[in-house]
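[scheduler] slot 2 assigned
[scheduler] job type: sequence-to-structure, two independent chains
[scheduler] chain ordering preserved from manifest
[runner] begin chain α
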Amino acid sequence: MSADLPSNPLQAGAREVALRLQRAGWTAYWAGGCVRDVIMGRTPKDYDIATNATPDDVLRLFPKSLAVGKAFGVVRVPIEGNWYEVATFRQDHAYRDGRHPEAVTFTDAQTDAARRDFTINALFFDPIAKVIHDFVDGRKDIDRKIIRTVGRPRDRFMEDQLRLLRAVRFSATLGFALEPATAGAIRDLADRIQSISAERIQQELTRMLLEAPRAGDAVQTLQELGLIKHILPEVEALKGQEQPPQFHPEGDVFTHTLIMLNAMVERSVQLAYAVLLHDIGKPPSAKQVGDRIRFDNHARHGAAMAEAVLRRLRFSNADTDAICFCIANHMRFMDVKKMRRATLCRLVGAPTFPVELELHRLDCLASHGGMDNYDFLVAFQKERAGEPVLPEPWVTGQDILALGIPEGRDVGLWKKKVYEAQLDGQLENREAALAWLKKQLLDAGSLHE
């Protein structure tokens, strides 16, 4: 680690916390992931500080602090608008719930390192003396690009079963290999992931999909280690589901999905899960018709299944609705060249359209490779670049009532018809729209001169 650390306000505050603790006579180091990131030349998103000062000592030294986990030795300290977790060196005792120790004992740095999850996260750094304290060969594992548990893998995973997923996330996001004994223990204990709350599983899975350079490889690792079948059996079912080779030369539905995930560039929660789940309706809808496999209505079935998955993983209603809409409608892109202008305007004007368009692009790239419909939509967007996404309708419900149509369902139907004519470019302005509407009403017998 360089003696001259690059500084930013977040890092400067972390140094200030350690300096004040040391000046008060305590040991204080940066701890865990921030040390790993600095060693790797990455910019930490947060800094944790470990110390032999007790929570009460920390609270006295930093009066504006919050004791968020005093029983576990954790205090949150504010410095210049940033918050830092300051934790007392500790030893954890029995883990009976597979997540939290029943009790802790305050101790020293070496003992504290021994209770941490992976060697690369068990490093300490003194930012004042600029010295690394490594009791578990974590720096060597960073150099070797290895994810290895501190101590016996089974012990670490039984203490906190979320670590089964965290190991895969660190491997995927850092580009590190899982050490064989660590991978073997994950495979042996994979079913224990079911004891972890849906929220925590979702958080780890989402970070993999958004942060891993190749998100598809992360999902493949989850499948190979036996985790995906306990988290997302709907995705596990994609493996081995054959597809028509003329449309999908890449192979089965699982392979297709992994290729799409690996090809993601600009990512969002909605896009990542739309990609991951877009074809989960294929296995239950698959049928052999002559010499071809068909997946009738798989998009609609998949959207219903995806809603159940996303509810199970505790996603927000907004994200759930948007992702399911994208999945339910992803096959309509096949017909965009046949759509009326009004329909295209509605398609492009939908709030989900950027996600839908990217989902379609990835779907094509990962299968037949034909980009005609994608290019057509991009050109249509450019053509309408100076126009509002969806213009205000020239004719309102009040206008239709004023023409003599009574309140009720017919008002909405006529409003939709005249708006579609407006979007199709049949009408030049409001006056033309009203004249067109009046003629249509007369022709339909809904209006009398």
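[runner] end chain α
[runner] begin chain β
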Amino acid sequence: MEPKNILVALLIVIAIAFHAFWFVTAKQRRHRRPGDTKPKGVALLAAFIANFFDTLGIGSYATTASMSKLWNIMPDEKIPGTLNVGYVMATVVQAVIFMTIIEVDFLTLVSIIGAAVLGAFLGAGVVSGLNRRQVQIGMGTALLVASGLMVLSMSGQGPAPGVALGLSGTKLGIAVGISMVLGALMMLGIGFYGPCLIMISLLGMDPRVSYPIMMGACAFLMPSGSIQFVRKESYDLRTAIAFLIAGPLAVLIAAPLVDRIPLLYLRFLVLAVVLYTAVRMLTSAAQEKAAARQTA
């Protein structure tokens, strides 16, 4: 069996194990605190839209956070955990598809994935313990960063796309270091896709290999990081269930369309919404700080 196929099989096993852990933990949680677990229609819609865009390479984190804020899907402080827990399966489906059909150097793929997983595991322990205002500030800042990365990508700035299918030596070391940081930041809501695509282009790789790399990295790191959120119950259960249902469906519909849909107008729309949401997040944090001072 080829090494890449072994990696795909391992990913599927990890995904099954994570969802079994989530199911058992959620069942225990319901025994302690009975409540409705029926997913909301608006959450299903948000997950479908976000993961459709995600499969096209736009990313799901910024778009989901934006829709959550606009449509009041869940509390702000629950957004990072719910995104990570609920989108595990959708990301695994993406990774299996693109790791199978796009060629990439195996050592480069494994190295970047391993670094991202480690960063996510360490980063989730910090993010899952933040309070509401801290998450608002972090998410607002993250969305502004994501907006900047979108603008950079849309403007075509940076070096011309490379043709390499892998990295070695110093460049591989740089990619590993950056991926560890991105894995940690992903737990705060900065999507991995945009930064990964830019990193790959700057290091002289063929932009097409970003799909198996970034989707594979996210698929492996999200179960690792999400364990922290599940243990600390730092996520919204009803919304996460909705994400689990609608996310993979959107991926399967969008995957065949990757090379067919013009994305420029979609990117402009997403950029506008993300910027608006970032401002709202930071404004909410400032308002809560002012309210806390008045009551002190």
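[runner] end chain β
[qc] chain β: Residues 264-295 form the longest helix (32 residues).
[scheduler] slot 2 released
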